[in-house]
Amino acid sequence: MKTTAKRISFVLAATLAAGSAFAASHAMEQQEAREALMKEMGKNLGTLGKMAKGEIDFDGAAASAAATALHEAAEKALADDMWSEDSDSMSVDGSRAMPEIWDNYADFQEKGATLIAAIESAQAATGEGLQAVQASMGDLGGACGGCHKVYRAPEE
Q: Which pLDDT score is estimated for 107?
């Protein structure tokens, strides 16, 4: 009987350990995926910003492609399945997602919706020319900063 109890204890411990390892692995995968998507967003936002500042020539097709890629990356990055509570900066090395996201998840989602709306405005602006893109950049930058100031930990 003691042998059976030991086996059950071992199986339970192994199952719990495997579950914990899976959860930690999943959280790390989420963090890495978010980071890659945020870099993609930054790259495309940078293209639009350089055009708006006159650092590179305005090209409507390139601006539209950047805005579309920005929108696609943002939609993926903001999906609920990318944000489990165990993927924050306190739980995963390298994560800059502050735990406050989950304390104020409705506000976080609202800020995400604001970002998507700003990106969609920028997408529309790309067809209207340089001045329209320039005018859209303030709302776009504000939407990015509105979330990052509250919910992103500073770089170490």
A: 97
Contacts with 154 (C-beta within 8 Å, 6 or more apart), sequence order:
96
Full residue range of the structural domain in which residue 57 is found: 28-151
Please report, for the domain that includes residue 46, its CATH number.
1.20.120.10
How confident is the model over 36-74, as pLDDT tens digits?
A: 999 999 999 999 999 999 999 999 999 999 999 999 999
Q: What is the pTM of this model?
A: 0.82
The 8 Å CB, 24+ separation contacts for 127-131 are: 127/60, 127/64, 129/58, 129/60, 130/51, 130/52, 130/58
Tally of domains in the chain: 1
**Nearest C-alpha neighbor of 138 from the set 60, 52, 71:** 52
24 contacts: CB under 8 Å, gap ≥ 6? 86, 92
Q: Per-residue pLDDT tens for 87-137?
A: 889 888 889 999 999 999 999 999 999 999 999 999 999 999 999 999 999
